[in-house]
Amino acid sequence: MGKIIGICNQKGGTGKTTTAINLSALLGLAGKKTLLIDMDPQGNATSGVGFNNQDKNSIYDAIMGKASISESIYPTEWPNLHISPSDISLTGGEVELVNIENREMQLQDKIKEVKDDFSYIIIDAPPSLGLLTVNVLVASDSLIIPVQCEYYALEGISKLVNTIELVQERLKPSLDIEGVLLTMGDFRTRLTLQVIEEVRNFFQKKTFNVIVPRNIKLAEAPSFGKPICFYDSGCVGSKAYFNLAQEVLKERVETEQETIEV
Predict the structure, then answer these.
(1) Does residue 261 lie within any of the structural domains?
(2) Would you say residue 218 lies in a domain?
(3) Which distant-in-sequence residues (6+ apart) come within 8 Å of 79 by Cβ?
(4) Which domain holds residue 242?
(5) What is the CATH number of the domain that holds 100?
(6) 155 within some domain
(7) Neighbours of 78 (CB within 10 A)
(8) Pairwise CA distance, residues 244 & 240, whole Å
Protein backbone atom coordinates (compact mmCIF):
# COMPACT_ATOMS: atom_id res chain seq x y z
CA MET A 1 0.00 0.00 0.00
CA GLY A 2 1.44 3.34 -1.05
CA LYS A 3 2.27 6.19 1.28
CA ILE A 4 0.60 9.46 0.31
CA ILE A 5 2.54 12.66 0.98
CA GLY A 6 1.06 16.09 0.31
CA ILE A 7 3.38 19.03 -0.37
CA CYS A 8 1.56 22.06 1.03
CA ASN A 9 2.03 25.74 1.76
CA GLN A 10 -0.59 28.34 0.89
CA LYS A 11 2.18 30.93 0.48
CA GLY A 12 3.59 30.97 -3.05
CA GLY A 13 7.29 30.86 -3.90
CA THR A 14 8.36 28.49 -1.15
CA GLY A 15 9.70 25.71 -3.39
CA LYS A 16 6.59 23.57 -3.07
CA THR A 17 6.43 22.40 -6.69
CA THR A 18 10.22 22.09 -6.91
CA THR A 19 10.07 19.78 -3.90
CA ALA A 20 7.21 17.71 -5.34
CA ILE A 21 9.01 17.21 -8.66
CA ASN A 22 12.43 16.37 -7.29
CA LEU A 23 11.35 14.21 -4.36
CA SER A 24 9.13 12.18 -6.72
CA ALA A 25 11.92 11.72 -9.25
CA LEU A 26 14.41 10.63 -6.60
CA LEU A 27 11.98 8.16 -5.04
CA GLY A 28 11.59 6.71 -8.53
CA LEU A 29 15.36 6.50 -8.95
CA ALA A 30 15.52 4.68 -5.62
CA GLY A 31 13.38 1.96 -7.18
CA LYS A 32 10.07 3.06 -5.64
CA LYS A 33 7.15 3.16 -8.05
CA THR A 34 5.93 6.72 -7.57
CA LEU A 35 2.90 8.74 -8.66
CA LEU A 36 3.06 12.53 -8.79
CA ILE A 37 -0.39 14.15 -8.67
CA ASP A 38 -0.46 17.77 -9.81
CA MET A 39 -3.29 19.49 -7.93
CA ASP A 40 -2.15 23.01 -8.83
CA PRO A 41 -4.16 24.51 -11.73
CA GLN A 42 -0.97 26.21 -12.93
CA GLY A 43 0.31 22.76 -13.92
CA ASN A 44 3.94 23.51 -13.08
CA ALA A 45 4.66 20.04 -11.73
CA THR A 46 3.28 18.61 -14.98
CA SER A 47 5.55 20.70 -17.21
CA GLY A 48 8.41 20.38 -14.72
CA VAL A 49 8.73 16.65 -15.44
CA GLY A 50 8.50 17.31 -19.18
CA PHE A 51 4.99 15.92 -19.62
CA ASN A 52 2.74 17.29 -22.35
CA ASN A 53 -0.85 16.76 -21.27
CA GLN A 54 -2.52 18.18 -24.35
CA ASP A 55 -5.61 16.11 -25.26
CA LYS A 56 -5.06 13.84 -22.25
CA ASN A 57 -7.13 13.24 -19.14
CA SER A 58 -6.09 15.23 -16.11
CA ILE A 59 -6.65 14.99 -12.37
CA TYR A 60 -9.59 17.35 -12.92
CA ASP A 61 -11.29 14.72 -15.08
CA ALA A 62 -10.76 12.11 -12.37
CA ILE A 63 -12.08 14.27 -9.52
CA MET A 64 -15.14 15.35 -11.47
CA GLY A 65 -15.94 11.79 -12.58
CA LYS A 66 -15.28 12.41 -16.27
CA ALA A 67 -12.62 9.68 -16.29
CA SER A 68 -11.30 7.14 -13.82
CA ILE A 69 -8.09 8.01 -12.03
CA SER A 70 -6.40 5.09 -13.78
CA GLU A 71 -7.27 6.75 -17.09
CA SER A 72 -5.67 9.98 -15.79
CA ILE A 73 -2.27 8.49 -14.92
CA TYR A 74 0.61 8.35 -17.41
CA PRO A 75 4.23 7.19 -17.31
CA THR A 76 6.91 9.85 -17.60
CA GLU A 77 10.29 9.37 -19.22
CA TRP A 78 11.88 9.13 -15.77
CA PRO A 79 12.36 5.74 -14.04
CA ASN A 80 9.38 4.52 -11.98
CA LEU A 81 7.73 7.95 -12.09
CA HIS A 82 4.11 8.39 -13.21
CA ILE A 83 2.01 11.54 -13.28
CA SER A 84 -1.61 12.55 -13.03
CA PRO A 85 -1.33 15.92 -14.78
CA SER A 86 -3.10 19.22 -14.21
CA ASP A 87 -4.27 22.06 -16.38
CA ILE A 88 -6.21 25.30 -16.07
CA SER A 89 -9.55 23.44 -16.01
CA LEU A 90 -8.79 22.58 -12.39
CA THR A 91 -9.43 26.24 -11.51
CA GLY A 92 -13.11 25.69 -12.26
CA GLY A 93 -12.98 22.44 -10.35
CA GLU A 94 -12.70 24.34 -7.07
CA VAL A 95 -16.06 26.00 -7.78
CA GLU A 96 -17.69 22.80 -9.04
CA LEU A 97 -16.68 20.91 -5.90
CA VAL A 98 -18.78 23.21 -3.72
CA ASN A 99 -21.99 21.53 -4.88
CA ILE A 100 -20.74 17.94 -4.57
CA GLU A 101 -21.55 15.76 -1.57
CA ASN A 102 -18.47 14.90 0.52
CA ARG A 103 -16.58 17.50 -1.50
CA GLU A 104 -13.55 17.40 0.79
CA MET A 105 -13.04 13.69 0.12
CA GLN A 106 -13.19 13.50 -3.66
CA LEU A 107 -9.43 13.16 -4.17
CA GLN A 108 -9.10 10.63 -1.34
CA ASP A 109 -11.84 8.46 -2.82
CA LYS A 110 -10.19 8.47 -6.25
CA ILE A 111 -6.70 7.70 -4.90
CA LYS A 112 -8.01 4.65 -3.04
CA GLU A 113 -8.47 2.99 -6.43
CA VAL A 114 -4.74 3.11 -7.23
CA LYS A 115 -3.06 3.38 -3.83
CA ASP A 116 -1.91 -0.23 -3.87
CA ASP A 117 -0.25 0.23 -7.27
CA PHE A 118 2.41 2.65 -5.99
CA SER A 119 4.99 2.77 -3.22
CA TYR A 120 4.66 6.55 -2.91
CA ILE A 121 2.08 9.07 -4.07
CA ILE A 122 3.27 12.69 -3.94
CA ILE A 123 0.64 15.45 -4.28
CA ASP A 124 1.55 19.01 -5.23
CA ALA A 125 -1.09 21.24 -3.62
CA PRO A 126 -2.07 24.68 -4.93
CA PRO A 127 -0.81 27.82 -3.14
CA SER A 128 -4.10 28.46 -1.34
CA LEU A 129 -6.27 27.13 1.47
CA GLY A 130 -9.31 26.43 -0.72
CA LEU A 131 -11.18 23.21 -1.41
CA LEU A 132 -8.44 21.78 -3.64
CA THR A 133 -5.91 22.06 -0.81
CA VAL A 134 -8.39 20.62 1.70
CA ASN A 135 -8.79 17.66 -0.66
CA VAL A 136 -5.01 17.23 -0.64
CA LEU A 137 -4.93 17.33 3.18
CA VAL A 138 -7.70 14.74 3.51
CA ALA A 139 -6.14 12.44 0.90
CA SER A 140 -2.64 12.55 2.43
CA ASP A 141 -1.15 10.31 5.09
CA SER A 142 1.38 13.02 5.93
CA LEU A 143 2.51 16.47 4.79
CA ILE A 144 5.76 18.13 3.83
CA ILE A 145 5.65 21.89 4.39
CA PRO A 146 8.32 23.86 2.50
CA VAL A 147 9.29 27.09 4.29
CA GLN A 148 11.43 29.72 2.59
CA CYS A 149 14.44 31.07 4.49
CA GLU A 150 13.23 34.66 4.32
CA TYR A 151 11.86 37.33 6.66
CA TYR A 152 8.20 36.35 6.37
CA ALA A 153 8.95 32.63 6.61
CA LEU A 154 6.47 31.90 9.37
CA GLU A 155 3.82 34.30 8.09
CA GLY A 156 0.79 32.25 7.17
CA ILE A 157 2.19 29.02 8.57
CA SER A 158 -0.06 29.41 11.61
CA LYS A 159 -3.10 29.50 9.28
CA LEU A 160 -1.91 26.33 7.56
CA VAL A 161 -1.32 24.62 10.90
CA ASN A 162 -4.81 25.66 12.05
CA THR A 163 -6.29 24.20 8.84
CA ILE A 164 -4.34 20.97 9.36
CA GLU A 165 -5.65 20.75 12.93
CA LEU A 166 -9.24 21.28 11.73
CA VAL A 167 -8.81 18.51 9.15
CA GLN A 168 -7.36 16.23 11.85
CA GLU A 169 -10.28 17.01 14.14
CA ARG A 170 -13.13 16.70 11.65
CA LEU A 171 -12.02 14.69 8.63
CA LYS A 172 -8.67 12.87 8.97
CA PRO A 173 -7.48 12.18 12.55
CA SER A 174 -4.47 10.22 11.25
CA LEU A 175 -3.05 13.13 9.19
CA ASP A 176 0.53 13.83 10.28
CA ILE A 177 3.23 16.34 9.45
CA GLU A 178 6.05 14.40 7.78
CA GLY A 179 8.34 17.37 8.16
CA VAL A 180 9.02 21.04 7.54
CA LEU A 181 11.56 21.64 4.77
CA LEU A 182 13.65 24.81 4.83
CA THR A 183 14.23 26.04 1.28
CA MET A 184 16.15 28.78 -0.56
CA GLY A 185 18.75 29.08 2.15
CA ASP A 186 21.54 31.61 1.62
CA PHE A 187 24.14 30.79 4.21
CA ARG A 188 26.02 34.02 3.53
CA THR A 189 23.30 35.94 5.33
CA ARG A 190 22.47 36.20 9.01
CA LEU A 191 18.77 36.20 8.09
CA THR A 192 18.87 32.61 6.82
CA LEU A 193 20.46 31.46 10.07
CA GLN A 194 17.84 33.34 12.10
CA VAL A 195 14.97 31.79 10.11
CA ILE A 196 16.46 28.30 10.49
CA GLU A 197 16.61 28.82 14.26
CA GLU A 198 13.04 30.17 14.43
CA VAL A 199 11.55 27.36 12.35
CA ARG A 200 13.40 24.65 14.26
CA ASN A 201 12.30 26.17 17.57
CA PHE A 202 8.68 26.30 16.36
CA PHE A 203 8.45 22.86 14.74
CA GLN A 204 11.28 21.18 16.70
CA LYS A 205 11.76 17.53 15.64
CA LYS A 206 9.33 17.98 12.74
CA THR A 207 11.99 19.97 10.82
CA PHE A 208 14.06 18.05 8.26
CA ASN A 209 17.83 18.12 8.76
CA VAL A 210 18.46 19.00 5.12
CA ILE A 211 18.20 22.65 4.02
CA VAL A 212 17.70 23.30 0.31
CA PRO A 213 20.01 26.16 -0.74
CA ARG A 214 19.39 28.84 -3.31
CA ASN A 215 20.64 27.27 -6.52
CA ILE A 216 20.38 28.53 -10.09
CA LYS A 217 20.31 24.98 -11.44
CA LEU A 218 17.15 24.24 -9.46
CA ALA A 219 15.54 27.29 -11.04
CA GLU A 220 16.67 26.30 -14.56
CA ALA A 221 15.69 22.62 -14.53
CA PRO A 222 11.87 23.05 -14.91
CA SER A 223 12.29 25.06 -18.11
CA PHE A 224 13.96 21.96 -19.59
CA GLY A 225 11.23 19.66 -18.25
CA LYS A 226 13.71 17.78 -16.10
CA PRO A 227 13.99 16.97 -12.39
CA ILE A 228 17.25 18.33 -11.02
CA CYS A 229 18.83 14.87 -10.71
CA PHE A 230 18.58 14.50 -14.49
CA TYR A 231 19.49 18.09 -15.28
CA ASP A 232 22.59 18.52 -13.09
CA SER A 233 23.11 15.68 -10.64
CA GLY A 234 26.25 17.24 -9.16
CA CYS A 235 24.82 20.61 -8.12
CA VAL A 236 24.12 21.47 -4.49
CA GLY A 237 20.36 21.52 -5.13
CA SER A 238 20.39 17.97 -6.42
CA LYS A 239 22.40 16.78 -3.43
CA ALA A 240 19.98 18.50 -1.05
CA TYR A 241 16.97 16.74 -2.55
CA PHE A 242 18.86 13.45 -2.56
CA ASN A 243 19.32 13.89 1.20
CA LEU A 244 15.64 14.76 1.58
CA ALA A 245 14.69 11.53 -0.19
CA GLN A 246 16.84 9.61 2.27
CA GLU A 247 15.16 11.33 5.22
CA VAL A 248 11.72 10.51 3.82
CA LEU A 249 12.66 6.89 3.13
CA LYS A 250 14.53 6.67 6.43
CA GLU A 251 17.17 4.59 4.71
CA ARG A 252 20.25 4.90 2.54
CA VAL A 253 19.17 5.51 -1.04
CA GLU A 254 20.75 3.25 -3.63
CA THR A 255 19.61 4.53 -6.99
CA GLU A 256 19.01 2.21 -9.92
CA GLN A 257 21.48 4.12 -12.08
CA GLU A 258 24.60 6.17 -11.52
CA THR A 259 22.86 9.51 -11.78
CA ILE A 260 23.51 11.05 -8.40
CA GLU A 261 26.85 11.74 -6.86
CA VAL A 262 26.91 12.52 -3.16
Answers:
(1) no
(2) yes
(3) 28, 29, 256, 257
(4) 3-249
(5) 3.40.50.300
(6) yes
(7) 24
(8) 6
Phi first, then psi, for residue 38 (nearest 5°) are: -95, 105
Q: What is the 3 state secondary structure string of the chain?
A: CCEEEEECCCCCCCCHHHHHHHHHHHHHHCCCCEEEEECCCCCHHHHHCCCCCCCCCCHHHHHCCCCCCHHHCEECCCCCEEEECCCCHHHHHHHHHCCCCCHHHHHHHHHCCCHHHCCEEEEECCCCCCHHHHHHHHHCCEEEEEEECCCCCCCCHHHHHHHHHHHHHHCCCCCEEEEEEEEEECCCCHHHHHHHHHHHHHHHHHEEEEEEECCHHHHHHHHHCCCHHHHCCCCHHHHHHHHHHHHHHCCCCCCCCCCCCC
Q: Show pLDDT as tens, one digit a residue, over the chain (262 residues).
A: 789 999 999 888 899 999 999 999 999 999 999 999 999 999 999 999 999 988 899 999 999 999 999 999 999 999 999 999 998 889 888 889 988 889 999 999 999 999 999 999 999 999 988 999 999 999 999 999 999 988 877 777 888 888 899 999 999 999 999 999 999 998 888 888 888 988 898 888 899 999 999 999 999 999 999 999 999 999 999 999 999 999 999 866 665 444 443 3
pTM metric for this prediction:
0.93
CA pair distance 76, 98, nearest whole angstrom: 32
What's the full length of the chain, in residues?
Answer: 262
> How many domains, in total, are found in the chain?
1
* 211 and 182 Cβ atoms separated by less than 8 Å: yes
In a domain, 254, yes or no: no
